[in-house]
User: Which sequence fits this backbone?
């Protein structure tokens, strides 16, 4: 990520500790045909900005790296706005289903006086 030579990402011991969890994610993304699929319970993600500050517009990305913390070859990289769209409230869906009884089945209605159900003829 980025075109400049400055890269301070691999110097942090805590970051290197965190990305050890992503070794399983690497196996999931770049899996082996003969291995069983593993479930991932923990994952280290990074919110990364990219820019030199000259133009004022700095894109923000959600990034998942492998266990080597290599930001040039990421397992997942997506703009933050696109990532957040997945978690917005779903829009209301109109229910167009019409309930129809099978032929030959008698409909039963509740009486107003109690819980007993009598067949409607």
Assistant:
């Amino acid at each position: 990520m980025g075109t400049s030579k400055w890269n301070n990402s691999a110097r942090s011991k805590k970051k290197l500790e965190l990305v050890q969890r992503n070794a399983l994610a690497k196996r999931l993304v770049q899996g082996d045909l003969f291995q069983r699929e593993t479930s991932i319970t923990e994952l280290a993600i990074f919110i990364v900005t990219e820019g030199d500050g000259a133009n004022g517009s700095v894109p923000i990305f959600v990034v998942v790296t492998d266990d080597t913390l290599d930001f040039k070859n990421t397992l997942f990289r997506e703009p933050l706005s696109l990532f957040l769209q997945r978690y917005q409230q779903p829009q209301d869906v109109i229910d167009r289903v019409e309930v129809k009884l099978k032929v030959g089945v008698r409909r039963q209605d509740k009486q107003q006086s109690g819980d007993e159900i009598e067949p409607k003829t």
About this structure: The chain has a mean pLDDT of 77.
